[in-house]
């Protein structure tokens, strides 16, 4: 980790929120892959009241679908995320949909924090640019038992669309350094 929001942390978790949910786990400045190379597949975690996965209800796609239903709109008329977060203040149905989504997302974030005890959780994906996301997420996290003891910073990723390319370069450098 030589660039970005996680560069000063030995241990961190990145959760990427988009069409689905993905992520990565860094332990001792090394990417943790797991025994079967599935580490960081956070999207498969059940977080819904009926066991729905993070992919289904805590992704940006899940948020858009919930908001579409709350607004009774066809999919092609869905406003972008920044408009949704702005309209939350005046639309009770939209506020409820976003609140439910944030609660599901917070369950996944809390689970990851309690499992890995990272120094920071980084949030990636387009939705990470929504400043209103972080206080909303924090409000839900504060309802969990032990949050005060487990609490870590939750921040947006800084590298945007360059993150994947820079990560590939970093992994290649790590491999060369081991050779």
TrEMBL record:
> InterPro entries, per this entry?
ATPase_NBD, ROK
Q: Known SUPFAM superfamilies for this protein? A: Actin-like ATPase domain (SSF53067)
Cleavable signal peptide? none
Which molecular function GO terms apply here?
A: beta-glucoside kinase activity
List UniProt keywords, sorted A-Z. Kinase, Transferase
Question: Would you say which domain of life the source belongs to?
Answer: Bacteria
Q: What is its EC number?
A: 2.7.1.85
| Name of the protein this chain belongs to | Sugar kinase
């Amino acid at each position: 980790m030589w660039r970005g929001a996680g560069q000063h942390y030995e241990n961190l978790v990145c959760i990427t929120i988009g069409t689905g949910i993905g992520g990565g786990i860094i332990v001792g400045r090394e990417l943790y892959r797991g025994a079967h190379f599935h580490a960081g597949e956070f999207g498969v975690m059940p977080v819904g009241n009926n066991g729905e996965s993070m992919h289904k209800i805590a992704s940006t796609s899940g948020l858009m679908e919930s908001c579409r239903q709350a607004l009774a709109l066809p999919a092609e008329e869905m406003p972008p995320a920044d408009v949704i977060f702005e309209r939350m203040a005046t639309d009770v149905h939209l506020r409820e949909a976003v609140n439910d989504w944030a609660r599901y997302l917070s369950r996944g974030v809390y689970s990851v924090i309690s499992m890995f005890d990272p120094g920071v959780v980084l949030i990636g994906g387009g939705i990470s640019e929504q400043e209103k996301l972080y206080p909303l997420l924090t409000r839900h996290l504060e309802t969990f038992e032990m949050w005060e003891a487990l609490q870590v910073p939750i921040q947006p990723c800084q590298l945007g669309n360059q993150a994947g390319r820079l990560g590939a370069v970093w992994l290649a450098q790590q491999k060369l350094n081991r050779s």
